[in-house]
Amino acid sequence: MNQLSNSLLPRIVTILGKVLEWITISLMVLLTIVVISAVIARLSGQSFSWYDEVAAIMLAWITYYGSALAALHRRHIGFDTVLLAMPVKARLAALLAAEAIVLIFFVLMARAGLQVLEVLEGDTLISLTWVPVQFTQSIIPIGAILFILCQLLSLPNYWQVTADGISLEHAEIEEEVEAEMIKNKDRT
Known about the structure:
Layout: H1 2-43, H2 51-72, H3 80-85, H4 88-119, H5 133-137, H6 139-163, H7 168-187
């Protein structure tokens, strides 16, 4: 059973990571197209009435999906140096406390997001009256649930790395330094 979970979890993380990357990239491309189209329209004397509203919503969606992706890869701001300076038992207790705080926050956010959707029932966008505000704001509970899922899926690996005293931040910096050294070595 443990071997099945050891092979299944990385596959789930990889698939979810690819899905979140595609969603985030697609939203960024769409936002770029909307902005460029709006600029061209404005320069040609026409202006889209819906541009500002749609661009702001798309930016919010990019933020939520991107933050879930960052959570999956543990790329949010952290304090590895402080955490790793603690004895192992205290380090793991602090990790559990921090994870609990983050998860509780996002559970509350998902709940509040669902309440917001109830309040907004029947409202539509000002510029695009056929688009329900509930649809645009659905990203709040969806983003919170995605963040929770990503945090939980990345926890076993993070637990092991932290227990072993390895800093994710330092490992990433070391990889970048090595890559730069290889690039510079090839140039000379």
